[in-house]
What we know:
By secondary structure, the protein is mostly helical. It has helices spanning 3-32, 38-59, 68-92, 98-105, 108-118, 127-150, 155-175, 185-207, 216-243, 245-249, 252-268, 274-291.
Amino acid sequence: MTPDTINLKKELALLLALATLWGASYTFIKIGVETIPPITLIATRTLIAGLLLLAVLRIRGLSLPKDRATWGRFLFQACLNSAIPFTLIAWAEKTVDAGLAAILNSTTPIFAFLLTAVLTRHEPVTGRKLFGVLAGIAGITLVVGLEALNGAGDQLPAQLAIVAATICYAGAAIFGRGFKSLDPMMPAAGSLICGAIILMPLSFAIDRPWTLAPSTGSILALLCLSVFSTALAFVIYFRLVHTLGSVGTTAQAYLRVPIGVAIGVLFLGESISSTALVGLACVIAGVAAMTIPARKRIAAT
């Protein structure tokens, strides 16, 4: 066994770990919001994860930029990538199952492509990508349109909130292209810190966290969400971007969907309807079509 083979296996194991950490985040959120209000949950999540990433940067001998312009960009990225979408998903999971949240939130590559095609237009609209968009939209329609009827309309606003969060993530992916001159972990740490700065005052004003009595389960879920599904996941993600490349790393987008659904079924006792399963298949097919690179012909040597 060559060193290259050992390294590849290690990176693929890390890819599976990343998909599991992000897939588990929906279950952690579901348990967390049982006794912790969404704003306080996400404010604490971003603060803990941001401070941990700052510690990792310090260990690596790096420090965040100090100019106002860069921090303004971090603040905008925080709105798109943490403060707004994290809170929307946490609020939605007060009524929506973790598995359905994982399905709906996995369509970021599809919305990123749609926004790119409309705004920057730097990617061609190929038949493969068009199939991915149509399959993803069909999956969302199956999950949202029909599952909402089972909740007598109560779940529809929450499910649409998750879709809105997904669109935010897509916008963050496009805006994040402007951070190419920085170490990839810097915008992650900076935006998480900014997210905490945005949400902490709201938490104190709205939730009055000193009056809360969260359960042990919610506190443990919050810590796991912050340490493992956010800080550690970001560290693994940025490592994989360097080792597997951005395209290879996007494989976690369709790996984490069945993992997230399975975790919700196993640990929360959730059930997935046949309609949602069809939607899940459509979403996975759509995201895969959007992210897996087309095979190139290799000349014989």
